[in-house]
Amino acid sequence: MDIKSVAKGAAAGAAVGFACYLFSSASPVKKHNIRRDAGKTLKAAESLINDITSVFS
Predict the structure, then answer these.
(1) How is residue 57 annotated by DSSP?
(2) For labeling, which of 3, 15, 21, 36 is most exposed (least CB within 10 Å)?
(3) Where do the structural domains in the chain lie, given as residue ranges?
(4) What is the pLDDT of residue 44?
């Protein structure tokens, strides 16, 4: 068993758990802000991946 893989999995699980906790305990206005920020982050990540892909093509 690779220790790095276990550590990455544990860190990812902790991050997801923390995000779920924050979202479930947030007020409706805060939930809207979280969703909006998450959407912006996903769009930025998609743009970054597309840019990197176009560089290697």
Answers:
(1) -
(2) 3
(3) 3-56
(4) 92
